[in-house]
Amino acid sequence: MSLLFSRRCEYALQAVLYVACQPHDAMTSIRELTTALDIPFHFLAKILQDLSHKGLLVSHKGPQGGFALGMPASDITLFHIIEAIDGIGFTQSCVLGFHECSDRNPCALHEKWAGLRDGIYRMLVSRNIGQLSGEMHKPGFDKFDSPPSGI
């Protein structure tokens, strides 16, 4: 599990990236996603529903249905996905969990964490799914690769 994000958020990032690696006009079934990403079906279904409600994905029912990106991949930043699933609390929270941590009342790690957190935020808002899908070298994620066998 990630240091900053929930398992739900990790799965959301993986699912959106996987969908972005499929041909533009293709729908990706939830079964394909669960198999390719090894995510429990019902858990992923809720995540995909949340992403659809936020407009990051679109879904179509039926035998030819599935999920596709809800907007161009270049318009979906990593931060959009994180915000949709986990919210933006990590951009403001204390790494040690103190509620009163601030520039006026800092914890022992406040200054160091603030610099790291700001760097992470800049990376998340500057990197989009289109860029990442073109850079993936993971089996099944290569742009327009065939899905893993058995799907």
Write the layout of secondary structure elements.
Layout: H1 7-20, H2 30-37, H3 41-53, E1 57-60, E2 66-69, H4 78-85, H5 110-126, H6 129-135
Antiparallel strand pairs: 1-2
Helix pairs in contact: 1-3, 1-4, 1-6
Briefly characterize the structure:
The chain is mainly alpha-helical and 151 residues long. It has a single domain (7-135), classed as Arc Repressor Mutant, subunit A, CATH 1.10.10. It contains six helices and two strands.
Intertermini distance: 26 Å
Unreliable parts: none
Would you identify the CATH architecture?
A: Orthogonal Bundle
Might you state the CATH topology name?
Answer: Arc Repressor Mutant, subunit A
- Biggest sheet overview: 2 strands, antiparallel
CATH-assigned homologous superfamily = Winged helix-like DNA-binding domain superfamily/Winged helix DNA-binding domain
How many beta-strand runs? 2
- Percentage of residues assigned to helices: 40-55%
**SSE order in H/E notation?**
HHHEEHHH
Q: Which structural class do the helices and strands define?
A: mainly alpha
Radius of gyration (CA) equals: 17 Å
| Global geometry | elongated
Mean pLDDT: 89
Order of adjacent strands in the largest pleated sheet? 1-2
How much of the residues is beta strand, in percent? 5-15%
Q: Count of DSSP helices? A: 6
Report the CATH C-level class: Mainly Alpha
Number of separate structural domains:
1
